Amino acid sequence: MRFRVSLSSAASFVVLLTLLAIPSFALPITGDLHIAGLGDAQVASTFLNFLCQTTGNPTSPCPAGYGNFQATSGTQSFAPYSGDVGFIHSINNATQPINQNFSLLNFLIFDPVAGFGTVLPPDVALDLNFIFTGTQGQAQCLIPPSPGQNCTPQLASLVTAANPTGLSPFNLQNTQTGSTASFSVLGTARRISTNEQSSFIGVFSADFTVPYQSYLPTIASGGVVTSPYSATFTANIVPEPGTMTIMAGGLLLIIGSISLRRRRQRA
After folding, report:
1. Helices and strands of the chain, counted as H and E runs
2. According to a count of CB atoms within 10 Å of the terminal CB, is the N or C end of the chain lower?
3. Nearest 5°: phi and psi at 147?
4. Number of domains composing the chain
């Protein structure tokens, strides 16, 4: 008895295997989330405090250690949260060190109280895992200000084995009207109801009406600078090893089927 495997049958089998692998990704978190702080952010050499707006704020009281924000827009999984409000946890470099892995669960959460959101109960949380060092140099950090200059400060208070030169996470740039500051993070976007997870990248940014040379000495000397902020988070699915194995096996099946079919055609 001859056993024949057609290409279409092999492809159908791969589709079936892939579908069997999908349940763990039934509700993955994907898309972009844009937020703006309702309260400002306080920046110091070793911490970033997100403040809670309490006067006329549209959220319930902030949990300890959190500031509040509003989602200005969202796509895909985050689209239902556009306009909703939530809380974002402050960062302390003693427990969330720069340039090394850590775990800050519930870094960003949406307000679960009825009346403050359209998705009730909220089913998305962001956990923070990594803060990148800045990518600018130090040559222009302390020279007379001019538009187009950039700087990533080095601070003795940030020196660790993972950050031996004490690089700040901030990328600073002077503009014609002041300056901008930004830093980048990594983390895990988590669906609360199923614990399904996707990775995310995040970029925080702030605008100042003065050049960065005006506030760098304050931070370097242990002072605090306060500014409004915004952030963008982009979540993407990371396939599990088991899913990749199934898909790879299916691909090998197709290749083997094609090879078998060609040999029979030549016979």
Report:
1. 3, 14
2. N
3. -60, 140
4. 2
